[in-house]
Amino acid sequence: MKFTIAFAALVAVAQAATLVEVLTSAGANTLIALVKSDAPVLTALSTFKGTLFAPTDAALAATVKAGFNASDLTALTQVLTYHAAPTVFTGKDFTGTAFLTTLQGNEVKAATNKENKIQISSAFGTPAANVVKSLEFDGGVVHVVDQTLIPPANVVSVAKAAGLTSLVDTIVAAGLAETVAGLKDVTILAPTNEAFAAIASVAKTLTVDQLKQVLLLHVVPGIVHSTDIVKAKTLNKVATANKDATLNISFDGTNVLASGPANTAAAKVAVADVLADKVIVHVIDTVLLPKFETNIKYSSGVSVVAGAAALVAAALMA
Ligand SMILES: *[C@@H]1O[C@H](CO)[C@@H](O)[C@H](O)[C@H]1NC(C)=O
Ligand SMILES: *[C@@H]1O[C@H](CO)[C@@H](O)[C@H](O)[C@H]1NC(C)=O
Predict the structure, then answer these.
(1) Ligand 1 midpoint to CA 68 (Å)
(2) What does the pLDDT read at residue 16?
(3) How far apart are CA 189 and CA 285, in angstroms?
(4) What separation in Å is there between the alpha carbon of 209 and the centre of ligand 2?
(5) What's the rounded Cα separation, in Å, for the pair 129 and 118?
(6) Residue 309 pLDDT
């Protein structure tokens, strides 16, 4: 009996390790020093409950070497708060993809790789971080990661970095660069350069206002992850920033698909769940098309994919 009580007490003590104790035992010395140098973050973490991603000393050293200025408190706060999510994600028995909203405001993506190891993705272009160790503390869990997590940039910067030059050019041509860069809490379906090339002759005939209507059809209010679509299977009449048109979005068992009112073939999601600042981006292989009341008539039965630009143009001119 005595033994049981003593053992229970021991277990209780072991489980009650504080965040600082756990970080110290994990050897996260640089992280501890950075947190101590940032008063608001130190305060936030003193009562923190949830999941903390703790970059190794080597990971943080590499980030500083790459140009990160840890003395810039604004930047430091952004990066540190991006490592803390107020929900407990233990990663135990986890497979698939999950998104955790951080104290910074943006999400990180946790996904298992082919070896069933958890990787954490952050800003586009940064390598995914491997979880090298997971440790419980009294308020949740610490995952030691081998890369610093970087908060995502705005969606226009992400589109540029991703090489979606036709999309960026079209956004600029429509006079929407500032509007799009400032979008928050939306999902953007971002067509590839090939998708724009397939409708190049059509696009040339569109007025700036029509171009705007095409682009706005690619903006869905709210954050819609590919996992949400897979779960829902079919989302019909999804409202978009184009107030006159909706999209049908679905999962066919293999691909996530989206189609606009004038698409005869659905767009396929080629790259899902790219993180941008408060925006989620799905790269698609076909431009989504609204119906226009005047000037433009899309012919039914003509696919705008498959490089059929000339055909489409002919149909549109009719
Ligand atoms: C780093 O940030 C600090 C504080 O904002 C600033 O004084 C310093 O000049 C910056 N260093 C570099 C190399 O930009
Ligand atoms: C969406 O699905 C509904 C119901 O199946 C259909 O009537 C509508 O035409 C579809 N719209 C688009 C844009 O594909």
Answers:
(1) 10
(2) 76
(3) 10
(4) 24
(5) 9
(6) 32
Residue 27 Rama label (left phi>0; alpha psi -120 to 50; beta): left
CA of 69 to the centre of ligand 1 (A): 6
> What single DSSP character describes residue 161?
H
d(CA 208, CA 214): 10
| CA–CA separation, 206 and 212 (whole Å) | 9
pLDDT of residue 301: 34
Q: Which residues pair with 51 in a beta bridge?
A: 85, 141
pTM here is 0.86
Pocket test for ligand 2, best of 217, 236, 246 (most atoms within 8 A of CB): 236
Low-confidence residues in the chain, pLDDT < 70 = 1-15, 293-318
pLDDT at 6: 52
How far apart are the CA of 267 and the centre of ligand 2, in A?
14
**pLDDT attached to residue 14:** 53
pLDDT of residue 65: 97
Buried b vs exposed e over 180-196: b needs ≥16 C-beta within 10 Å? bbebeebbbbbbbeebb
Instruction: Specify the ligand 2 atom closest to the Cα of 266.
Output: 14
Q: Assess whether the C-beta atom of 259 lies below 6 angstroms from ligand 2.
A: yes
Q: Nearest Cα to 136, choosing from 46, 18, 27?
A: 18
